[in-house]
Write a structure and sequence with these properties.
Elements: H1 2-41, H2 46-54, H3 60-67, H4 76-83, H5 86-98, H6 100-110, H7 114-125, E1 134-135, H8 136-144, H9 150-166, E2 175-176, H10 189-195, H11 211-225, E3 234-238, E4 254-255, H12 256-261, E5 265-266, E6 278-282, E7 291-294, H13 296-304, H14 308-321, H15 339-351, H16 365-377, H17 388-394
Antiparallel strand pairs: 1-2, 3-5, 3-7, 4-6, 6-7
Helix pairs in contact: 1-2, 4-14, 5-7, 6-11, 7-14, 8-9, 9-10, 13-14
């Protein structure tokens, strides 16, 4: 009898999901019709729209990826060590030589040094070896028909269709990430449409097939984002003993001269230069890890990808492509905190009177500020980082996981 009931239950569940899938397919078909009408109204040729939408389909995997969250919170040592690798440095130096003439021309025109352009290229697609395999138009249509970020992805889809028309692209050629990033430089359609440049003189800007187009477009993009020629991204530093970590972060920008007077030095211990150039301190792995001064171009890198980890990786990869030896400070061995660990941390901080907002498992500014206040109240080094000492004092039990 129990087996019979299980079979009936299984059939009911299967019927439910089949019904849900059928409804989703019907909804998507209606949404496609609306989107195609909107594209024609936006000025895309009807023949282009018809060709594009003939191959557009709903991609459940895109919704799954959009909703998914990593089980473990990425630490800086883990992130950095997977991206600034000896292979990527060696390959990047090959690319610098291979494209030296073009890269020098781009520096003269846009002010972006070659080693930075190659660093972006390496981090985005391993120098073009992996540009994504998802059908961009289907991915964007799937997300446009989903309510969570419909307006944003509808706009990106409309722009992708205009690109298809302007650059004479086929739907089959337009592959990329699940969210619609494309080509060697992983531009979203809007960035592609606004900043892509014909670098090889064929009259088109093809970021998949043409390395000159991709590198020229990256230089144009960074120029438009506000890159300051002649200045570096930042630098690794040493902090003085007893440094007040409340002075870290973008809100605490000071001149290099002021930081020098506070006892900060270059990573090798030499004094910082006297300069009115403003910078702020970034400590991505807590007081046990490396520290950096971030300049204006660091924020430009973050406009490409809004992540301090990413900006440091780009900057350090660029440095090493140009011959630097790499980080002076060692990367600490940190536990791989799960998102549940961070949620527990946030709940406990709130309960202890250190308001960090709604627990979400994300180590954002509010959580770091709450950790810092807790550390100050408990005579710990107030770096705003959830070290194991903080977790122990708050009674947060760590999920077993690999270390960084």
């Amino acid at each position: 009898m129990k087996r019979f009931c299980n079979v009936i239950s299984g059939l009911a569940v299967a019927t439910f999901f089949l019904g849900a899938s059928a409804q989703a397919a019907e909804d998507f078909a209606q949404c496609k019709d609306r989107l195609s009408t909107q594209a024609i109204a936006a000025g895309v040729d009807e023949a282009v729209v018809n060709k594009a939408f003939a191959s557009v389909s709903f991609v459940p995997r895109v919704i799954e990826l959009d909703r998914s969250q990593p089980e473990f919170v990425t630490t800086f040592p883990s992130y950095y060590s997977k991206r600034v690798t000896s292979w990527r440095i060696d390959k990047g130096r090959e690319m610098l030589q291979q494209h030296a003439s073009l890269l020098n021309e781009l520096e003269a025109k846009y002010g972006i040094p070659p080693h930075y352009l190659v660093a972006f290229w390496g981090l985005e697609t391993n120098f073009g070896s992996y540009k994504g395999t998802m059908p961009v138009l289907s991915s964007l249509a799937t997300l446009a028909c989903d309510q969570r970020r419909s307006d944003y992805f509808t706009g990106e889809l409309m722009t992708a269709l205009k690109l298809m028309q302007r650059e004479q692209l086929s739907p089959e050629a337009m592959v990329g990430s699940w969210a619609g990033a494309m080509g060697h430089t992983q531009f979203m359609p809007t960035a592609y449409y606004r900043y892509a440049v014909d670098g090889d003189g064929d009259g088109l800007a093809n970021l998949w097939e043409s390395e000159p187009d991709a590198l020229t477009s990256a230089a144009n993009f960074l120029d438009n984002l506000g890159w300051e020629p002649g200045f570096r991204w930042g630098r690794e530093i040493q902090l003085p003993k007893g440094f007040d970590y409340r002075q870290t972060g973008y809100q605490n920008r000071q001149s290099l001269t002021q930081w020098q007077q506070l006892g900060l030095t270059q990573a090798n211990g030499n004094p910082l230069p006297d300069s009115d150039l403003t910078a702020y301190v970034v400590v991505p792995a807590g007081h046990k890890g490396p520290a950096f001064l971030a300049y204006h171009n660091f924020r430009v890198i973050m406009r490409w990808n809004n992540s301090e980890f990413y900006a440091i990786a780009v900057g350090e990869l660029a440095n090493q492509l140009a011959g630097a030896k790499g980080l002076v400070a060692s990367l600490p061995d940190l536990p791989a905190y799960s998102r549940d660990n961070i949620i527990d941390l946030q709940k406990t901080l709130n309960q202890e009177g250190f308001d960090v907002g709604k627990p979400d498992g994300i180590l954002g500014p509010a959580t770091r500020a709450g950790i810092r206040e807790f550390q100050l109240a408990n005579e710990l080094i107030a770096d705003g980082f959830p070290g194991e000492d903080v977790m122990r004092k708050l009674g947060v039990e760590l999920t077993a996981g690999e270390k960084s």
